[in-house]
Amino acid sequence: MEAAAPLLEIEGLAMRFPRPDGGVLSVLEGVTLALREGEILGLLGRSGSGKSTLLRLIAGLARPAAGQIRLLGRPVEGPPAGVAMVFQSFALFPWLTVLENVELGLEALGLPAAERRRRALAAIDMIGLDGFESALPRELSGGMRQRVGFARALVVHPAILLMDEPFSALDVLTAETLRTDFLELWSEGQLPIRGVVLVTHNIEEAVLMCDRVLVFGSGPGRIVADIPIGLPHPRDRLDPLFREEVERLYAALTAEGTGRRPPQRSEHLPGSGIGTVLPNLSPALLAGLIEALARPPYAGRADLPPLAAALQLEVDRLFPIAETLQMLRFAEVAGGDIRLTAEGMQFAAAGTDERKRLFARHLLAYVPLAAHIRRVLDERPGHRAPWTRFAEELMDHMGPEQAEASLRAVIGWGRYAEIFAYDDQRRVFSLDNP
Predict the structure, then answer these.
(1) 133, 196, 295, 359: which has the fewest Cβ within 10 Å?
(2) pLDDT at residue 1 above 50?
């Protein structure tokens, strides 16, 4: 497998979008990777790291700003033959039957009706939906609809299957069944594909399915680690070696989150300046994680994988909470572990008023945007400032959606800490305290 030419080669890929202010938002920079024959390659990272954008570029649905993509040795300059995609949202046509949805791609290829029907029925049978050919999507469960999505992608016999979080919209049991069925078909060589690229933010899913995992960092999206998963299939989640691989990926993601990288204008690591992109998390959610960590069995320190499992939180939910606590100096995150600081333990033991005072001190000391808003309000004679005063300033550092989310986050934190108020009807910040 090592000696064969890669199915997919990407070199120096970059993707950028223009901003309304005339600047450029960099989504991907310097991405280089290869997909080998017979390999399931995982792309793991948090929301906003450009994973789905990368899939769109591979599928020829967008053109990169720089770099090159080669599929089976040929440059990708538009939607190429030999690539199919399975989406998170199923993306079925609701007025078409299962059979008609699966046949659609073959119709686009111009195959005769008899050949379309033969191949579609074979794909439907293979994916476990025999008997449902005449059903409409509204008659199917979520798992069955996603099986239709798989059949529609596989029926065109692609060289590479792209999967964009295909199990994340399903309940836990349905997702597990579909993963297992897919892996069995793949291991037995029944799938008409030669390689898979799987986008996920679920670390256990990455270890369960992938031969190799590329960990993506954010701001802009780039590969920060390339981790082979050497376990034989089928893999057992309870195997200590499986848990070790999960720990490795958690450690890689937390190392990326600590910001050990060149400074950027728009940072996803909290605490780096007014251009920090803040996650819109409620104070109750932050307090909840502090309280959970302070109680037995953790006593202030926890390993992130079992903590995530106990709290039923995936990476995209747990990491922003943990890193926000790190920004506020209530916790430290490193090597796949989280530990409450002395101030974090103090917060957990405090009553409501003392918690508010402690949160206010840390908010003003460690969140530059909160301190900046308070300073502006203090300096103005009427102690008021419009939303636009800060939104326009943030959009020098980030996109409008990120600016909106960051301001919404700091509003919630500022209200809880009682360091400023906000009137959403008038869209005005103030020092009013009713």
Answers:
(1) 295
(2) no
Which of the four CATH numbers 3.40.50.300, 3.65.10.10, 3.20.20.10, 3.40.190.10 does domain 8-257 have?
3.40.50.300
Domain with CATH 3.40.50.300 in the chain: 8-257
Pair of tokens at residue 107: 């119709």
Q: What is the pLDDT of residues 41-60, one digit of tens each?
A: 999 987 778 898 999 999 99
CA atoms within a 13 Å half-sphere pointing along the CA-CB vector of 59 = 18
CA distances from 304 to 301, 334, 360 (A): 9, 10, 27
Q: Do 408 and 369 form a contact (C-beta atoms < 8 A)?
A: no
Omega within 30 of 0 (cis) for the link into 158: no
State how beta strands 24-35 and 8-18 pair: antiparallel
In whole angstroms, give the CA distance from residue 335 to residue 338: 8
DSSP, res 221? B
The structure tokens listed for 60 are 């020829």
Per-residue confidence band for 269, with pLDDT thresholds at 50, 70 and 90: very low
Q: Which amino acid, 185? A: L
Exposure class string for 77-111: b at 16+ Cβ within 10 A, else e: eeebebbbbbbbebebeeeebbbbbbbbbbeeeeb
Retrieve residue 47's tokens.
């929301």
How many Cβ atoms sit within 10 Å of the Cβ of residue 226?
12
In the numeric block, which tokens belong to residue 34? 């290869």
pTM above the 0.85 mark? no
Task: Tokens 């320190």: give the residue.
Answer: 301
Q: Are strands 66-71 and 8-18 parallel, antiparallel or unpaired?
A: antiparallel
Q: CA-based angle 323:327:331, to the nearest 5? A: 70
pLDDT digits (tens, 9 = 90+) for 196-206: 999 988 888 99
Predicted confidence at residue 329, as pLDDT, reads 93
Q: Compute the mean pLDDT over every residue in the chain, rounded to the nearest whole number.
A: 86
Residue 50, classed as helix, strand or coil, is: coil
